[in-house]
Structures are given as structure tokens and as C-alpha cells.
Amino acid sequence: MTIAEWCVFGTLLLSLLTIVSVKWAGISGFDNSKPRDPDFYDDPIRSRALGAHQNGIEAFPFFAFAVLLAEFRVGPLRLIDELAVLFLIVRIAYVFTYIGNRPTLRSILWSIGFAINIAIFFLPAIRGYLTS
Questions:
Q1: CB-CB contact of 15 with 84 (8 Å)
Q2: pLDDT of 59-101, one tens digit each?
Q3: Quick one: 30 exposed, middle or buried, by C-beta within 10 A (0-12, 13-18, 19+)?
Q4: Terminus-to-terminus CA distance in the chain, angstroms?
Q5: Nearest to 124 by CA among 81, 62, 78, 69
Q6: pTM for the structure as a whole
Q7: What pLDDT is recorded for position 30?
Q8: Which of 3, 5, 16, 106 is buried most deeply by CB count within 10 Å?
Q9: What average pLDDT does this structure show over 40-55?
Q10: Residue 44's pLDDT band (boundaries 50, 70, 90)?
């Protein structure tokens, strides 16, 4: 497996860990028979963790598709790997800014992550213009 493929897996785990951590931290108030109970998410930190989790689920398909497409279309593997690692780092920072209630920085990080996805997606199309 490539580094980028491991980053796809890491991105998936990040979205799961985002919500699991608040459920474990709030174990006394979490009822597993009602995992989507809106009352559990009344707490601001839990609410923001849920938002970060949902955004992670939303961001995952495009990232995974971009990485796989770039690899299948023989994009420059080293650059794909580097951008995928950068995307994962940006997503980790995004989760912390989301939970930490830093909306402007969160939006900036989201935009950077989206730009990285666009770059990965178009790497096969521009590979002839890149130097090795």
C-alpha cells in the first residue's frame, strides 16, 4: 500500500475517533441504545465534535476518490503521497479547531484541505507539466 492509501485509512479513522472520543468522555450521559439522541449533543463540545465528525464523513469520499484516481491514472506517486499526508495533517488541525470553537481558522483549514483534494484529483492531468 502507498502512503496516500494509508492516509485515506487515517482520514476514515480520524472521523470515527472524533465522535468516539466524546462518547467515551461523556460515557455517563451517553446511551448506546439511543446513539443519535440530540440531548446528548446539547453540550457545546459534543455538538462541535459531532459537526467535525459529520464533516469528516462528507470530506472522505472526495479525498479517497481523488487519491485512487490519481494513482490509477499514474499521477506522480511521491507528490500524491506528500499531498495526502498534508491533507491528513490539515484534517487533524481542522478537527481541533472545530472542537476548540475557532470558526475562522476552521474555515481556512477546510479551504486548504479542499484545495489539496483538487490538486490530487488533477495531478494525472498535469503530470506532463511537472518535473520529476
A1: no
A2: 999 999 999 999 999 888 999 999 999 999 999 999 999 999 9
A3: middle
A4: 22
A5: 69
A6: 0.91
A7: 80
A8: 106
A9: 92
A10: very high
